[in-house]
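Input.
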Amino acid sequence: MPLAAQAQWQWIDGNGRKVFSDRPPPADVPARNIIGRPAGGGGASVPAMAAPQAPVPAAPASAPRVDRALEEKARQAEEAEKTKRAEAEAKAAKARQDNCARARQGLATLDSGIRIARVNGQGEREIMDDAARAGEQRRLQGVVQSDCVAR
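Output.
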């Protein structure tokens, strides 16, 4: 009996810690993580058969807490990223909507045929000629086509 009581199992658990026990490791511990076994078959007695029942709850109980915490952090980070993306998409959609409204208003003004004056680089007021009007209509039509498309 004294030799059976001294039988020592050694293995690395799921958290990377070295575990020493007189009982064999739980079934979820891979064979490569078992460092030491009792000599002389002392660990293969009847108590060893019942042994997996005791350590099994202890090892998974600590690992799921860590896994759950990591999963919760990952889920929160993913939700934060989704929220951030949604806010950026909403902001871009609002900018497109504003550009669309301004472009349509500009086209309506150009199509009305009224004289339009601009301020040039020197701060002087100048009236748009037909070529400038046509160029501005093309530019605004491009904005309408790109920003006024339903997405």
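Residues 55-112 form the longest helix (58 residues).
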